[in-house]
């Protein structure tokens, strides 16, 4: 954005703090913009004519983390681990079952539609599928201008001029204003979704698999665009992905999820250099290395996890990864490890983390060697 591009004006922004608009002051760089504690989302499973609840899918089952102003937090994990559900919870597109969500110090956990409306300016989401997230009956101009109309914001120079400027910011042409989504490629559609998310100058952008549906060459363009926009506009990102190469390129800190829980959280260099949770090690070992000589130099062997991911309706007792872990002991089966900070700076939920003293040093009998127990090796 050039110096001539002034931010949009809105008469509501002149109201004092605490007014009905919900406008909050910007936190200093590095302070927590978003704080999540004990966050849970359980989807009920019903059966029969009277829809009697017979169980629940524990999609997200107790998350604790914060997102600092100006950083990018990456969320990785296998399909079905609860990443997308978590993204919809922190943007309040889903109602949490339990826990607390604070945005700039304000509790937004159970705000209704009216209470969340002013906060939609500050919290936006980029959806996974660029083909279904855009209304095929609306033009690009109508799609990107929708946030202005919904929030009652009148940009300087008019809505059309601002939309055309946003299209240029994301690498599209102003002439695309009157075109329809079906006239664009997948990468261009994702850029339209990004322009819509940036329309109201948000403080936090949650990107749910922003490049998973795109070709590899287009993925690089969109990832670089997100990085450039962060530097230019001072955005804070939560990026959800299963591609560890993408997450490594864009993230400052990375959280690894497994069956609705965070098992490791640390900065990018520490996670890729010295992973401490066995599940993180298995994920990183599966990242393809194009140069065989480089792969041999790294000395990292592929770790094949045995068995399937357990059902989120009936997760294992204790550590949820113990049924597939080659380091699991009896305490892993009976006691759930807390997510605790270690001296290395990692936050790890593991009784026997790599490259660190065990939380349970006296428990050394491996489950995979016990008689009648067929756990992973």
**Count of individual helical segments:** 11
Order of helices and strands: EEEHEEHEHHHEHEHEEHHHHEE
Low-pLDDT sequence parts: 1-25, 373-377
Largest sheet: 8 strands, mixed
* Outline type: globular
**CATH-assigned homologous superfamily of the largest domain:** P-loop containing nucleotide triphosphate hydrolases
Separation of the first and last Cα atoms: 53 Å
CATH topology of the largest domain: Rossmann fold
CATH architecture descriptor name of the largest domain: 3-Layer(aba) Sandwich
Top-tier CATH class of the largest domain = Alpha Beta
Number of domains: 2
**Largest sheet: spatial strand order:** 6-7-8-3-9-10-12-11
Q: Please count the beta strands (DSSP E, at least 2 residues each).
A: 12
Instruction: Determine the mean pLDDT.
Output: 85
Protein name: Dipeptide ABC transporter ATP-binding protein
Pfam family, one: ABC_tran
InterPro entries: AAA+_ATPase, ABC_transp_ATP-bind, ABC_transporter-like_ATP-bd, ABC_transporter-like_CS, Oligopep_ABC_C, P-loop_NTPase
Keywords: ATP-binding, Nucleotide-binding, Transport
């Amino acid at each position: 954005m050039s110096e001539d591009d002034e931010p949009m004006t809105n008469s509501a922004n002149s109201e004092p703090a605490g007014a009905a608009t919900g406008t909050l002051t910007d936190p200093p760089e590095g302070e927590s913009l978003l704080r999540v504690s004990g966050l849970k989302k359980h989807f009920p499973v019903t059966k029969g004519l009277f829809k009697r609840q017979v169980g629940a899918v524990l999609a997200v089952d107790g998350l604790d983390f914060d997102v600092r102003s100006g950083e990018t937090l990456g969320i990785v994990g296998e399909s079905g681990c609860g990443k997308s559900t978590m993204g919809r919870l922190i943007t309040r597109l889903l109602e949490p079952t339990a826990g607390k969500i604070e945005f700039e110090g304000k509790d937004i956990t159970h705000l209704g539609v009216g209470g969340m409306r002013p906060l939609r300016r500050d919290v936006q989401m980029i959806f996974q599928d660029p083909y279904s997230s855009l209304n095929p009956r609306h033009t690009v101009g109508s799609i990107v201008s929708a946030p202005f109309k919904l929030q009652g914001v009148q940009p300087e120079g008019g809505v059309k001029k601002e939309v055309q400027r946003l299209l240029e910011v994301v690498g599209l042409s102003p002439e695309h204003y009157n075109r329809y989504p079906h006239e664009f490629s997948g990468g261009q559609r994702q850029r339209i979704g990004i322009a819509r998310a940036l329309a109201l100058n948000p403080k936090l952008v949650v990107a749910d698999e922003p490049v998973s549906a795109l070709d590899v060459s287009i993925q690089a363009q969109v990832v670089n665009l997100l990085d450039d926009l962060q530097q230019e506009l001072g955005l804070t990102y939560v990026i959800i992905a299963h591609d560890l190469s993408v997450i490594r390129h864009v993230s400052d800190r990375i959280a690894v999820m497994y069956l609705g829980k965070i098992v490791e959280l640390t900065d990018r260099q520490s996670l890729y250099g010295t992973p401490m949770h066995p599940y993180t090690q298995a994920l990183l070992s599966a990242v393809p290395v194009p140069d065989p000589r480089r792969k041999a130099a790294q000395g990292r062997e592929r770790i094949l996890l045995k068995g399937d991911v357990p059902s989120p309706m009936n997760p294992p007792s204790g550590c949820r990864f113990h049924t597939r872990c080659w380091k699991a002991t009896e305490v892993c089966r009976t006691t759930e490890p807390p997510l605790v900070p270690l001296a290395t700076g990692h936050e790890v939920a593991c009784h026997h983390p790599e490259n660190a003293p065990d939380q349970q040093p006296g428990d050394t009998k491996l489950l995979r060697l016990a008689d009648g127990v067929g756990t992973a090796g």
